[in-house]
Design goal:
The protein is mostly helical and 156 residues long. The protein has one domain. The chain is 73% helix and 0% strand. It has 9 helices and no strands. Helix 1 runs antiparallel to helix 3.
């Protein structure tokens, strides 16, 4: 594949992600009460989008995300620890950028589905990002993520 084709594919994946995020945001703005948030918080959240992973990383993540979630859930039943371990494993298996982005994207889905069962929780995003950071810093994410929920600076 030529470098022009690669660049075109990367731009296409960015366009698709931006479109999907706009859909999540537009829907989220119609159901802020269900999600326990405000229109201002939703708008601020979507303006803080982290850099997109590469197309190759997104594709790899897509094919291993269920395995990563199972590994994280097998290690802990605490929600924040699961998010943290998942972020650690995504960074380890795919890339740091994908680990950070996955936490954002998951919360974008949650706020955009207008479903109380998958509530919008910024501390979930933060826990996922912390897991990715632990990997980047060379820590053992399985150990470092234990009790991460008690270390977060805020609760939603």
């Amino acid at each position: 594949m030529s470098s022009y084709s690669t660049l075109a594919n990367e731009k296409s994946s960015d366009i698709i992600l931006k479109h999907q995020l706009r859909k999540f945001e537009n829907k989220a703005l119609t159901c802020t009460e269900v999600e326990g948030t405000s229109k201002l918080k939703v708008k601020i959240f979507f303006r803080q989008t982290p850099p997109f992973p590469s197309l190759k990383s997104l594709m790899k993540f897509y094919f291993i995300k269920d395995q990563i979630l199972k590994k994280a859930q097998n290690y802990s039943n605490d929600d924040k620890e699961v998010h943290c371990i998942a972020g650690f494993l995504i960074a380890k298996e795919v890339s740091y950028r994908t680990g950070v982005f996955s936490g954002f994207y998951k919360e974008a889905q949650d706020v955009g589905d207008c479903d109380k069962r998958t509530h919008f929780d910024l501390s979930d995003q933060m826990a996922t990002m912390i897991g990715a950071i632990y990997y980047r810093l060379g820590y053992d994410g399985y150990k470092k993520c234990l009790g991460v929920g008690n270390q977060l600076p805020f609760k939603n």
